[in-house]
Amino acid sequence: MGRVSGKIALITGGASGLGRADALALAREGARVVITDVSEEAGRALAKDIDGEFVRHDVRSEDDWHKAIAHTLARFGKLDILVNNAGIVVPGDIETATLEQYRLLNAIHAEGSFLGCKYGIEAMKANPGSTGSIINISSLSAIRGFPGVITYAAAKGAILAMTTTIAAHFREKGYAMRCNAILPGMINTPLLAAVGADTLPGLGQPDDIANTVLFLASDESRHVSGAHIVVDNASSIIGGGA
């Protein structure tokens, strides 16, 4: 217990699915958690359960990012952990997906993560000697072909590239911060249900991702930066299944 004791975390899309599991895991291990989401009722209920904070937050909005960061700093005085988790999925292959869908998915996933990293870094730097950790939720679809979710895969690929670049930036600047990405495979969440894949055999559970988030959020991972951690029960290397 206490692996992230005294740390302050902000989790986007924290009201359900992977974000909810992340919030519960970090709070259980001693972090104070700020949950941000567009789902206010679920977000406020979870924040109350874990003695955390809730901020309504559309990750596409730069103003909302300013407000979420400002709330975190006003309430807790610092930011140690940022989990860029918010996202949606819209089914469609390259022939059926629309430009509007592509722009929407990239706005939420890629632009949302970009803004989170940009302003999260600013907040972490304000804490002298910060060993802040940014954890970007990418996807197995960023490195393995899933024809039916082209817009989602493109956005998650952008997050993967961004993570590598930010980690290199930290190294170049000498910042004692780190940036890593998690690539979930098939995990039993509402997102998976949205594309009708929640009944596949061998699905992972949200806690499988939350436990990885916990490791990257803790000082146990202080020498890990720029990593892309695949959590998929080996499906990406043997093919088939979840």
Task: Give structural notes.
The chain has 242 residues and is α/β, with parallel strands linked by helices. It has a single domain (8-233), classed as Rossmann fold (3-Layer(aba) Sandwich), CATH 3.40.50.720. The chain is built from eight helices and seven strands; from the N terminus they run βαβαβαβαβαβααβα. The chain has helices at 17-28, 40-49, 62-76, 99-125, 150-173, 190-194, 206-217, 235-238, and strands at residues 8-12, 32-37, 53-56, 81-84, 133-137, 178-184, 228-231. A seven-stranded parallel beta sheet has the order 3-2-1-4-5-6-7, with helices on both faces. Helix 4 runs parallel beside helix 5. Belongs to the short-chain dehydrogenases/reductases (SDR) family. Pfam families: adh_short_C2. InterPro entries: NAD(P)-bd_dom_sf (IPR036291), Sc_DH/Rdtase_CS (IPR020904), SDR_fam (IPR002347). This is SDR family oxidoreductase.
